[in-house]
Amino acid sequence: MTLIDGKSVANERLNNLSKTITSLKEQGKRAPGLAVVLVGEDPASQTYVASKIKQSKKVGIESKSIVLKEDTSEFELIEIIKSLNNDEAIDGILVQLPLPRHINSEKIIDSINPNKDVDGLHVHNVGRLVQNKEAFIPCTPLGIMSLLEAYEIDLEGKDVLVIGRSQLVGNPVTTLLKHKNATVTQAHSKTKNIEEKILNHEIIVVATGVKAMVKADMLRDYHIVIDVGIHRENGKLCGDVEKSAYEKVKMITPVPKGVGPMTIVSLLENTVKAYYLKGDNHG
Amino acid sequence: MTLIDGKSVANERLNNLSKTITSLKEQGKRAPGLAVVLVGEDPASQTYVASKIKQSKKVGIESKSIVLKEDTSEFELIEIIKSLNNDEAIDGILVQLPLPRHINSEKIIDSINPNKDVDGLHVHNVGRLVQNKEAFIPCTPLGIMSLLEAYEIDLEGKDVLVIGRSQLVGNPVTTLLKHKNATVTQAHSKTKNIEEKILNHEIIVVATGVKAMVKADMLRDYHIVIDVGIHRENGKLCGDVEKSAYEKVKMITPVPKGVGPMTIVSLLENTVKAYYLKGDNHG
Fold first, then answer.
1. SS (H, E, C) B94-145
2. CB distance B11 to B262 below 8 Å
3. Nearest C-alpha of chain A: how many angstroms from B283?
4. Bridge partners of B117?
5. Active site residue B119
6. Could you read off the pLDDT of A23-47 as tens digits, one per residue?
7. Which of the residues in chain B have pLDDT under 70?
8. Measured between CB atoms, does B104 come within 8 Å of chain A?
9. CATH T-level fold of B30-118
């Protein structure tokens, strides 16, 4: 059994980002800039935003968080995004979700310049991903693909089961795997005979948001499992796959230190990609 | 065995469109308008455009074809589309594909107002379909869904195999079937063990563009088959499924008179949808 070490792959990629940005600065160019917008005081969101800012600063990205009051209006929020769209020092804009209920998230996300949409949720990027064109890809699916690549897991002609159909993970990862010539079956809460389907697939991506939804006895020694879930249990983190399954399978991303660390790396990589896309960074 | 009678479902829907438009006119409102743009003199394209115009006129849509010379520039074509975008009498705009090589099709399609994009190929509509939001859906996949509905074929929890991953059919039909709670496996040219996969699925959508790719001996009496192919053989039309398979399966869309007639109906339905979306049709 191999534990797929997301932490170590993430660290390697963070080092590469650091080097790239250091070299840009040495050439007298400006550093990439990331703006993270948070509306309200949800503690989980505050933690995520703080972590994104901290990690981005570590690699040399000029990041800032814009923290707005819970009762910020949709109009005010759009005005702020417009000013970030026009801000030459900002390459990436991320609006932390969920937004307060009185704000239409779709409208907000589609107000971001698609070329600064480092979360890959703008309709334009969603469409371009399906069309297999250059696009910003949501961070978790992008991180999963980087992990599969780092472990040289061949996807061509492979039967892959994706469990989950969220816009953040299930749908984009299905599309990405298909672009890599895998044959993908996308399962979800209405799927029948999920245990049989798991047995019939070699690679399983689990993104259900249901704690320990995939049990140890559903898995075999030929399975490569990507566990996207993240839950808290007795103060410890666990995923959508039972921990006792780890020793049964061929390879698995553990929780923590599997997919999790890759998500933030992808965000920073997307920010650097947006920087180069802008192409006005001449010192 | 049941032959799914696309011709008759299409006729019924054409009648409904006729009635809707007649009633609009009786109320003194303008009829929906469709513009079909053709660049060059490809004989197949000419036939398709002529047929779209003829059918749309039959139901009362004010349609016009705009035929441009082969050497029309990208700039000129975009100018024409812009004027159609601004034309109050035009609800739907369709650019017949393929375009001559010197024109970037993507750029042209994305220059259409997404609310007039009755072919459902604009990146905005592609993205919205994935997001399960109101969108214009490409005509053939939309026609397939209408056929499945007309024959009351239940999709919830069903295992469906889609063979093909084109932007026109394979990808959007996969997404539509998933939205209907089917568990969809999308196969393609790199898929392994396709015969086994066919046996393991009850509903098969074949959109490969390869004549008689699915053989009679791959199918069983429990199969419901949607054949999207259209090829010419000795002056007769045939599909992606061998004709000798028809008598073996539970249900199948024949070629001709299966999916084919539904495509044009969907185009006209999309045009009427665009008309109502515009909401400025007050006599």
1. EECCCCCCCCCHHHHHCCCCHHHECCCCCHHHHHHHHCCCCCCCCHHHHHHH
2. no
3. 32
4. B93
5. yes
6. 999 999 999 999 999 999 999 999 9
7. 280-283
8. no
9. Rossmann fold (3.40.50)
In order of B67, B118, B267, B269, the CA distances from B84 in angstroms are: 14, 13, 17, 19
Backbone dihedral region for residue A60 (phi beyond 0: left; psi -120 to 50: alpha; all else: beta): left
Query: What DSSP string runs through B219-267?
Result: --TT-EEEE---EEETTEEE-SB-GGGTTTSSEE--SSSSSHHHHHHHH
Q: Alpha carbon B151 to chain centroid distance?
A: 18
Section A263-269 average pLDDT: 97
Domain B139-261 sits in CATH 3.40.50.2300: no
Q: How far is B146 from chain A (nearest CA, A)?
A: 22
* CB contact set of A260 (below 8 Å; sequence gap of 6+): A6, A230
Q: Closest by alpha carbon to A131, among B112, B119, B191, B168?
A: B168
A5 CB-near residues (< 8 Å, 6+ apart):
A257
Res. A92: pLDDT tops 60? yes
Q: Which residues contact B192 (CB under 8 A, 6 or more apart)?
A: A157, A159, A183
Domain covering A139-260 assigned CATH 3.40.50.720 in the classification = yes
Distance from CA of B267 to the nearest CA of A (A): 21
Q: Do A85 and A114 form a contact (C-beta atoms < 8 A)?
A: no
Residues B73-124 have pLDDT tens digits of 999 999 999 999 999 999 999 999 999 999 999 999 999 999 999 999 999 9
Whether A119 sits among the annotated catalytic residues: the reply is yes
**What's the pLDDT score for residue B283?**
45
State the catalytic residue, choosing from B5, B52, B55, B116.
Answer: B52
B166 touches chain A (CB under 8 A): no
Q: What is the location of CATH 3.40.50.10860 in chain B?
A: 30-118
Pick the CATH number of A29-119 from 3.30.2350.10, 3.40.50.10860, 2.160.20.10, 3.30.499.10: 3.40.50.10860
Distance from C-alpha of A188 to C-alpha of A162, rounded to nearest angstrom: 8
The predicted model gives A123-133 an average pLDDT of 98
Check B167 against A126: CB less than 8 A apart.
no
Band the pLDDT of A283: cuts 50, 70, 90.
very low
Beta strands in A174-215 (DSSP E): 183-187, 203-206
Mean pLDDT of chain A: 96
> In b/e form, how buried is each residue of B230-243, taking b as 16+ CB within 10 angstroms?
beeeeeeebbbbbb
